[in-house]
Amino acid sequence: MSAPSPLRAPFAVPADHACLPGHFPGRPVVPGVVLLDHAFALILATRPDQRIATLESVKFLSPVLPEESVSVEWSESAPDRIGFRASVGDRAVFRGQARLCAA
To answer: What domains does the chain contain, in order, with CATH numbers?
Structure first.
């Protein structure tokens, strides 16, 4: 039996998002917490009976600018764990793993 295919979904943080004016003036970069919030919203939309219990690991690899289309991919790495990664085009921007629990 083969592993299930990863799920994918895109998001973009609009240029007028409240987090951007101070992060960083003149060349805004989307904060990691905002990227994770968007990614987890997509992931949990497919698992409404669960929530994130623990962020076990995350590595930010490249900055994300406002309006860039971020593609998130995730799959179950164990019954209570999700592995995830995100990219902008061919550029990896973050990856990690989270433990899930019942909502």
So the answer is: 7-102 (3.10.129.10)
Residue 45 φ then ψ, to 5°: -65, -25
- The alpha carbon dihedral of 10, 14, 18, 21 has a sign of positive
Helices and strands per DSSP (H, E), number in the chain: 1, 5
Q: Whole-angstrom Cα distance, residue 90 to residue 30?
A: 18
The token pair at 67 is: 């309006």
pLDDT in tens, 35-53: 999 999 999 999 999 999 9
CA angle 72, 76, 81 (to 5 degrees): 100
> The whole model's pTM is what?
0.92
